Amino acid sequence: MRYLYIDTSSSYLYASIVEDNKCIASVIEEFGQSLSEVALPRIVEMFQNNNLSPDDVDKIIVVNGPGSFTGTRIGVTIAKVYAWSKNIPITTITSLEAMAISSPNEKIHVPIINARRGFVYGAIFKPDYSIIMKPQHIELSELKNKLLSLDNYEFISNDEFDEELELTSYTPDFVKIIQYAKDNKEINPHAVNPEYLKLTEAEESKI
Amino acid sequence: MKDIYILGIESSCDETSASIVKNGTEEISTVISSQIDIHKDFGGVVPEIASRHHVKNITMVLESCLEQAHMTMDQIDAIAITYGPGLIGSLLIGLEAAKTLSFVYNKPLIPVHHIAGHIYANSLVKELTFPLLAVVVSGGHTELIEMTDHYKFHKIGGTLDDAIGECYDKVARVIGLEYPGGPKIDKLAAIGQDTYKLPIPLQDDSYNFSFSGLKSAVINLSHNLEQRGEEIRKEDLATSFQKVAVESIISKVRKAIVEKDIKNVIVAGGVAANNGLRNAMKDLTDELGVELSIPPMKYCTDNGTMIAAAGYYAYLDGRIADLNLNSKSQDVLK
Q1: ipTM exceeding 0.90, yes/no
Q2: A204 close contact with B: CB closer than 8 A
């Protein structure tokens, strides 16, 4: 089985091709403003460097957020159009799960992404990755309250925050991520969409 | 010659659309998913909401387009995509979809300027003759473009401030009409009397336009009437406003036809649906003995058909992009 993994939900492009528990190609690149320009060409390079054609993928796993709205949409669009047009099975994983799974530590994992104005996208996972708190848009102070009763946890993030936090930095472990997500329920490509976890400002101000 | 089938994808604002066009002139299938009812509640297009709907709709739009055409991606010769101008977050969805299809099916990717699309909507009706003047009028554009041949664009004038469609929508809001107000003004204008005095903007020697003064004049007029406790006669104001707005376009078009020896005038963009403008253009071109092309109503709003039609001529012109193609919120047609 050959898997294509795409995550464009942060300021990094993370992409990989994993075959039989082996990562045969990967991209980790901070891209600044040009994600829309470079995302697909970098993915194509992975295929070319390994003499793979677009037909050589058995399943696509795409990160559907939370994170950058525009960024997430870029990866999701590539993945769903690819999966739909080539009739390739597709499934999703959240950015926060990918962060937790990649941690080498035997701790409670608390992946967080800065969502500004004191808010984060965060989740809490047990060391075996089962869920304590599912991904949500939450005030950092509220998240910290939820952690009061828990011992031996780690914050995982590559972002900066207004307050001092001890952070485990995040580098995706593609093989572990794919092992975790490969049996996630297959989704009709039309129904693969970003999970924003937050309304648009226009909608919020209407409520 | 072998037939060329172009798949055109458009997502620059609030319509997700895909279309297949044969040889630049024959529409095979078109699907448009409009978000107009969604944005109505907000009084205008909300970019983030538009982007969210594009990503949700894109594969469904592509699938129904191919189904209606009874075609598969393998039968498509090239993929044309609106790369700009427009809302960046919206443009990106169509762009990534087009780039992905270009990669997985190894098909040429053709970048199309949104305005080129509006111009080439006319080639779906009849062949273009040159030199040609394209009058591009929409919510985002008011431009005069001279074309000496296919895909040879030369902008000779444009608005210095608001676009005409933007001005229509703002005036509509002032007199209490719901978004999108432009078409409602056009309807009211047909039944009103020209009783309000408004200035004709920018009567100068250029090919440029200005609509912000006209917009302010309407706002001031409505405030003055309000202060005096008088009710605005909406249909009369619509008539007076439309007369001035249309006249300011017509006078510059007349000048361009004469000075540039134009053979064919094209009206393109959303405001090409405006009956007041259509009628005035017909009178002008009849008077000067010039051919007039106005796209059918269905091609006046944003659609993939016009992008596929323009894409055909761009393809013949050798305008192929690589997968580094990026969207541009602003770009000059050239």
Answers
A1: yes
A2: no
